[in-house]
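Technical note accompanying the year-one report. For the benefit of new consortium partners, we illustrate the data format agreed upon in the data management plan: each record pairs a sequence with a structure-token string. No post-processing was applied to the example shown here.
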Amino acid sequence: MAPLYFPLGLGIMLVVFGVIQILRSDIKKSIESLKMIKDMGEGDKKVNGMIGYTCVAGIVYALIFEHAGFVISTYFFMTAMLTLTNKKKHGQNALVAVLFSVGIYLIFTRALGIPLPKMPFVGF
């Protein structure tokens, strides 16, 4: 239970501080900035789309991490992020994602002795 207390306490404190920041903020300026979103240029819309895509990919990564294991979930996350920035080179993106996820897995588990979630049905 000991490793539970620090992240839980940190999460609660961050939520409380976030609520305090919202209450202290100028609501009128917040509403004005939300209205400005409608008048965004094409470049701003593209950047906001990329940010949203990254957030969704991060959430999916967190949800499948324990079930699919480190290598598989990291491969899909890296492929998604590389495809976002390097759209036309799918083979290169896949190769980099495989090398990164397997390489980091081996470094952490073999060299550093830090256990990471294993792939299902595979003993490596």
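Partners are asked to follow this layout when depositing records. The mean pLDDT is 85.
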